[in-house]
Amino acid sequence: MKSLFSILTLALGLAVASASPAAARGSVPYGTQHSLVFMADLGGVGRQQQDVALCHHTACSHVVFLGYWVCSQGYVKSLTACEGNSYLRF
User: Is the separation of the CB atoms in 39 and 64 below 8 Å?
Assistant: First the structure.
């Protein structure tokens, strides 16, 4: 039983390690994903009085659908209400 578990673990490890990033992106998510979480509306405080939102920028690392690390990158400003990947640092 112990050897069967070892063989299955080794096979899974080799399958994940040998997959190329381009091939694995469609089926198995792994790597780091950055996200913006809406915190507050700051009003028209942009360079040309655009509406600016306060967002919390996080980076989540994951392998085979299991998140193993979330890292706070701090607070940022966004002109798109925290949608997408564009933001302005303070």
Answer: no
